[in-house]
């Protein structure tokens, strides 16, 4: 009995120490040598987070957002795997950070459905660890995320045979520089805004409500009517239906975001591009294609970054609701001190799919 108690205490202490133990040495920073903005972001992030030179992987590929599978394999996955093996980083690297200018999404060749083969570059890269160790994962369809829901476990290899992949991206270098600066100033304060749609999908609504229940009541603003929340101050977290809320009429939330603030929303294509829309563009509906931007009328994750958020989730193609980040896992983990990458990936059910996570993986609010 006494041995079991000491083992439990040791596990708790180990978990607590890992919440803040990761540094730039646990990051592989991916820079596209053919993209000036990617190079600039890489230089700035490496300086600010003390990323060793051996942890910087320089690839050479066109700075197109959309690529095919063969180019992903030969120009992204293969050289990154080579960097990890050549520099003996396969085990010590826990996080891969891609940068604006590294391709965003892989086009598909199969019909729409859960077995489709299109995906985000970043979600494919999460499986690079297991690809190196065990051989290539199957394409098409998605792969269960072994870290999903593991709220009490430290993220480490080999127990979790994946990398947590985040992207330093926005509309331009200034947006990304601001992400990095804000991540270093993050503190555990501010409000979590949970904006339900009152009549939206029952499962999604329950995740939003459960997220609110797991956070301190004095730090939650829960809106469960048809009213859309705009203009809040001191925001540290935001979850909603985005443009899928039929009452949402504004592109921007007009929030005052605190350093370290993160967001997520149940929107199919919010990570579809990092090309800046015209200033007069606004969210719309699927019935008026002439008003769409980058192939869709929906909200854009990059807008939240531009407005002042430090982290964001998104989807490059249709993910289906069940594959989107779960706010009832994301926000409690982040509030309790998990870093940004671990908090988001705890909440994402499947990999080799459409998800992206924007932000510095090492960003943390610290303990409450």
Question: What is the gist of this entry?
Answer:
This protein is α/β, with parallel strands linked by helices and 368 residues long. Helices cover 29% and strands 17% of the residues. The chain has helices at residues 2-18, 36-48, 69-86, 121-125, 128-134, 173-184, 202-213, 301-307, 327-335, 340-346, and strands at 27-32, 56-59, 66-67, 95-99, 105-106, 119-120, 143-144, 164-168, 191-195, 220-223, 235-240, 257-265, 311-315, 350-351, 355-358.
Report what the structure shows:
This protein has 368 residues and is α/β, with parallel strands linked by helices. The protein has 2 domains: 166 residues, no CATH class; 189 residues, no CATH class. The chain is built from 10 helices and 15 strands. It has a 6-stranded mixed sheet with strand order 10-9-11-12-13-15, sandwiched between helices. Helix 8 links the parallel strand 12 and strand 13. The longest helix is centred in the N-terminal third of the chain and has 18 residues. The chain is globular and about 55 Å long. The relative contact order is 0.15. The N terminus is likely disordered.
Number of helices: 10
Q: What is the arithmetic mean of pLDDT?
A: 93
Report the helical percentage. 25-40%
Structure summary, number of beta strands: 15
Biggest β-sheet description: 6 strands, mixed
Rg from alpha-carbon coordinates: 19 Å
The overall number of domains is 2
């Amino acid at each position: 009995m006494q041995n079991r108690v000491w083992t439990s205490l040791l596990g708790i202490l180990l978990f607590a120490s890992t919440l803040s133990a990761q540094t730039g040495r646990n990051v592989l920073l991916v820079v596209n040598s053919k993209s000036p903005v990617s190079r600039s972001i890489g230089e700035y992030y490496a300086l600010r987070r003390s990323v060793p030179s051996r942890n910087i992987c320089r690839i050479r590929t066109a700075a197109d957002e959309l690529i095919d599978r063969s180019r992903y394999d030969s120009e992204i996955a293969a050289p990154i795997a080579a960097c990890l093996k050549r520099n003996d980083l396969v085990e010590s690297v826990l996080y891969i950070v891609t940068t604006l200018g590294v391709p965003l999404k892989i086009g598909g060749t199969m019909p729409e459905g859960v077995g489709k083969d299109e995906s985000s570059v970043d979600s494919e890269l999460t499986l690079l660890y297991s690809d190196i160790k065990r051989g290539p994962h199957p394409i098409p369809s998605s792969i269960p995320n072994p870290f999903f829901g593991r709220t009490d476990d430290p993220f480490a290899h080999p127990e979790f045979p994946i990398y947590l992949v985040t992207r330093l991206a926005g509309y331009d270098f200034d947006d990304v520089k601001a992400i990095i600066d804000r991540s270093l100033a993050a503190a555990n304060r501010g409000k979590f805004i949970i904006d339900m749609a009152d009549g939206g999908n029952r499962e999604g609504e329950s995740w939003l409500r459960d997220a609110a229940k797991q956070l301190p009541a004095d730090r939650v603003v829960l809106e469960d009517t048809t009213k859309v929340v705009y203009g809040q101050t001191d925001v540290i977290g935001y979850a909603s239906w985005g443009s899928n809320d039929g009452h949402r009429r504004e592109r921007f939330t007009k929030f005052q975001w605190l350093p370290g603030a993160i967001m997520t929303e149940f929107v199919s294509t919010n990570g579809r591009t990092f090309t800046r829309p015209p200033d007069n563009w606004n969210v719309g509906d699927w019935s008026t294609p002439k008003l769409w931007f980058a192939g869709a009328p929906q909200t854009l994750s990059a807008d939240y970054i531009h407005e002042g958020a430090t982290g964001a989730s998104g989807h490059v193609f249709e993910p289906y609701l069940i594959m989107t980040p779960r706010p009832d896992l994301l926000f409690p983990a982040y509030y309790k001190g998990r870093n940004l990458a671990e908090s988001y990936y705890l909440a994402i059910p499947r990999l080799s799919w459409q998800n992206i996570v924007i932000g510095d993986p090492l960003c943390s609010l610290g303990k409450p």
